[in-house]
Design brief:
Helix content is 17%, strand content 29%. A hairpin with a 7-residue loop joins strand 3 and strand 4.
């Protein structure tokens, strides 16, 4: 288990794009959701830093020991401006909750 000082949450950067795309695609493929109509084929998936740098969009990356472990995106919901939509919330297998551990994300 990692110590708290080895884990950080930060804004997405362009160098995170390909790592996050791989984490997302691998996660979807592992549950047989590598199908059209899912995030697996999202045209923005390989360029998340560009997509989320626009107004009313945010993406945070979970990093542990200087390795990207996953991330979560938020976007203001068009029809309900006071609400945010959670998007592209994926973690690599090592970062997921296992054996009763709380994992890295603590809400």
């Amino acid at each position: 288990m990692l110590k708290q000082e080895n884990v950080k949450i930060r804004e997405i950067q362009p160098q995170d794009d390909l790592v996050l795309a791989k984490i997302i695609r691998n996660s979807l493929k592992s549950v047989h959701l590598d199908q059209p109509g899912t995030a697996y084929f999202d045209e923005n998936l390989d360029h998340l830093s560009q997509y989320y740098k626009k107004e009313n969009r945010w993406y945070w990356v979970l990093e542990a020991n200087q390795k990207v472990m996953g991330g979560i995106g938020l976007e203001r919901f068009v029809y309900f401006p006071s609400c945010l939509e959670i998007q592209k919330c994926y973690l690599c297998p090592e970062a997921r909750n296992k054996d009763g551990d709380t994992g890295y994300w603590k809400w």
